[in-house]
Amino acid sequence: MNRLISRVAVITGGAVGLGRATALRMAGEGAAVAILDVRDAEGTALADEITGQGLSAAYWRCDVASETQVQATLDAVAKRFGKLNILVNNAGVAGVNKPTHEVTEAEWDWVQSINVKGVFFCTKHAIPHLKAAGGGSIINLSSIYGLVGGPDVPPYHASKGAVRLMTKTDALLYAADRIRVNSIHPGFIWTPMVEVHLAGQGDVDEGRRAADALHPLGHIGDPDDIAWGAVYLASDEAKFVTGAELVIDGGYTAR
To answer: What are residue 243's phi and psi, to 5 degrees?
Structure first.
């Protein structure tokens, strides 16, 4: 219950899916949770759910592709809760599922603006607050497709490869400031993003069975599988872990 006691965590894309699960688990471990998203109804409802349990949370509308919004929001979080200790860069989109030669510039740029620039903006403007707090933890959500290739969604795969290397660069840049930076690489997890992706390929139930079969453990993951990994990386249990890739994929990349 107290693995993150007295810490303040910012979670982007925090209203649904992996972000929601992470917000719930971090709040349950004692953190004050700032939920950042553009889904106002879901974000507000989640903050109310957490505070209704006697825990600490608040929602901010923030488009991570806007540097001005990111800076203003992180400053507001630090003002509200007094500091910032943890940043979970979770906000992301899948984008179009087309061969590379059919992807438009606008389609490519939209994915990069959220999945890559969003991580850059949030990290950039969290660093001063983390330094002021004497250190902290940044957790970047990459993907199995930041580690291996796949014959689909080229903009998404490129973005997650970028996040993997951004993580390692920042881990080296800020180690002396006691700021740890790590990436999580989920396999297929049952979230709204994955459901939409499978729906775009046909029957969702059939798609889920096919996705289950891709994982040696025989099934796709649950959001909590990732949330607990984020709790670990944010906690003192991971005090000697930085620049690492936490792969939570049911064995997908073990082949």
So the answer is: 70, 15
3-state secondary structure string across 16-68: CHHHHHHHHHHHHCCCEEEEEECCHHHHHHHHHHHHCCCCCEEEEECCCCCHH
Query: Within 10 A of 41 (CB to CB), how many other CB atoms are there?
Result: 9
Task: State whether the Cα torsion 183-18-211-101 is positive or negative.
Answer: negative
Closest to 238 measured CA to CA, from 109, 138, 117: 138
Which string of DSSP letters, residue by residue, matches 55-117?
Answer: --EEEEE--TT-HHHHHHHHHHHHHHHS---EEEE----------GGG--HHHHHHHHHHHTH
Over the range 78-105, which residues count as b (16 or more CB within 10 Å of their CB) and which as e?
beebebbbbbbbbbbbbbbeeeeeebee
Q: Cα(13)–Cα(204) distance, rounded to whole angstroms?
A: 23
SS3 label, residue 225: helix
Cα distance between residue 15 and residue 44, in whole Å: 8
Give the global pTM.
Answer: 0.95
- Per-residue confidence (pLDDT) for residue 125, from 0 to 100: 98
- Are the CB atoms for 136 and 86 separated by under 8 Å? yes
Q: How confident is the model at residue 196 (pLDDT cuts 50, 70, 90)?
A: confident
Mean per-residue pLDDT, 160-178: 98
Catalytically active residues are 156
pLDDT per residue as tens digits for the range 53-97: 999 999 999 999 999 999 999 999 999 999 999 999 999 999 999
Q: Provide CB contacts within 8 A for 253, sequence distance 6+.
A: 144, 147, 148, 185, 187, 247
Read off the pLDDT of residues 228-238 as tens digits, 9 standing for 90 and up. Answer: 999 999 999 99
Contact assessment for residue 109 and residue 31, using Cβ atoms and an 8 Å cutoff: no
